[in-house]
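User: My notes are a mess, but here's the protein and zinc ion's SMILES. Can you give me a structure?
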Amino acid sequence: MSFPFAAVVGMDDLRLALLLNAVSPAVGGVLVRGEKGTAKSTTVRALTAVLPTVDVVAGCRFGCDPAAPDPACPDGPHEPGAGAQTRPARLVELPVGASEDRLVGSLDLERALTEGVKAFEPGLLAAAHRGVLYVDEVNLLHDHLVDLLLDAAAMGTAYVEREGISVRHAARFLLVGTMNPEEGELRPQLLDRFGLTVEVAAPRDPDVRAEVVRRRFASDADPAGFAATWAAEETALAARIAAARELLPRVVLSDAALRQVTAVCAAFDVDGLRADLVTARAAMAHAAWCGREEVTEDDVRVAARLALPHRRRRNPFDAPGLDEETLDQALEDTRPDDDPPPPDGPEDDGPDPAGPSPEDGSGPQDAGTPEDRSGHLGSSTGSQDAETPRPGPAPERAAVAPSDPVRVRRLEVPGIGAGAPGRRSRARSERGRVVGSTRPAGPVTRLHLPATVLAAAPHQHARGRTGPGLRVVRDDLRQAVLEGREGNLVLFVVDASGSMGARSRMAAVKGAVLSLLLDAYQRRDKVGLVTFRGGDAELALPPTWSVEAAAARLTGLPTGGRTPLAAGLLRAAEVLRVERVRDPRRRPLLVVVTDGRATGARGGDHLGEARRAAALLAGTGTSAVVVDCESGPVRLGLAASLGTVLGAETLRLDELGADSLAGTVRAARQVA
Ligand SMILES: [Zn+2]
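Assistant: No problem, the inputs look usable. Here's the predicted complex:
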């Protein structure tokens, strides 16, 4: 028994964004950003109950509409007048770890080659056709799957090709992704492809919060009873969606309204025209939702607030959100002279006087509940506090700002791993270049054709082949072995002690680590940060997907004091031991940023301790790189000898850049 959609409180933007997509799938889906524990998933899952039911051709696994079956349907062609059945709209969840085959479906290559049958097993895209496809933690999904997903969503078609055999089928669905920005951002080019975004946060108004808790308690105590008390509102919402869908084709976007759409998009400096299209579609959907056939300024305002925030972001470290003043100004500038400004409150000129207000998209029961505009504003002001760096504990020296990041060369873990897809180290993977063939352990997913032909060739005579065409049996089939790249865990161990010297050098060191963090972001790595200074080492950031969080910690990192290098290395060893249990396939890369010096209480053999800690790390087989921060005319070379104990390559700060290798070669030539 799921939570009724009509009973969701304090998530007004999210509910409205979902409803606009339910009215007009052309709006292009919703990306929901927000911290944990804000009932994002509950709200999304509740939506399907108010979506209109779907008529499907009986027995079709691809959800064909009996009135207009997909001509390319792999289960077709369907005869006119074939049996039909009605089912509720579906919510299909795509797990973050799903394979490509699971998403798009799979061709049975064995049957295709041995029996000549084009057998296709539908994937989640087929299951989601005419329903909702929901991806929790969409920011953790591999780029390649996100691409496939967004392509299908944009085209309304799923396309599968394997070894020259292809299948296509209709896949029109409402795409909803949720993500916690603290766990890492979605790349900007993917952000842009979601129609709308919503920032959710727990409501700030105590009355709204109390109502959330009250309804949650009521639902937990008696789910069926709670659902029953909301049944009438659910039915009314469903009817309103259906009515708005019918009305949508008659909604007119006047030249004046279109001008407001384009003026707003121009004011927010968005790239391309996708923003204008989405804003226009969302405004039309909002008009239909309000029972109007004409798009008003209010529709444009609502649409812009949902369609634009994620399109104007340029840097992964920028804060999201939309400046309301700029929005007001843009709308005002293009307002036709004879138009009065819109009323302050929600409009109530919809066709159904008993209907809900257009702003919140909820049922008539809302009159008198705390679910009002204060809750609405509370949820729209976002939750950016999390990205502010923590003040450090009484720094000996104020934090130094990092120098500008540069593109760095790829540091990789040697050998071949089998970790999650990424862009750092070599790994066996589902995608990539073919490096060999093998007998398949299970079903063949990637056929190695030459190896298969070679395996089948010697048996043709014995199998009684007389004419053209190879006789292939299951035993001949060979699976291709592919090599791609994996993401790693990049654990930084950064010396923040006084030995790092002048502010300018600390700025360069921070700049180098920031560059490596940006690189990790693009290579789909998890990152962690251990720092050491004064008396001890600190896990400044436990392994996370959020490069933003790491950058914030780094920028605010205070420096000064003694140099407990051994403590830093031992802390890193402990972090890696825990992560090896938690995520065993992800191979770690330790990046030690140090000048190699170690100091502490008088009389201790601090350098010896550091060497022993390094030897311990080397003994666990951890791959490491030492970034040598030593500078000045007299060099001790301590970092390099630490690198030797770690079995690590040692690079100077100026050797980290992507172009520095060429520079080194040039310099060497000049000397010769
Ligand atoms: Zn069909």
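DSSP finds 22 helices and 19 strands in the chain.
User: Great, I'll file this with my notes.
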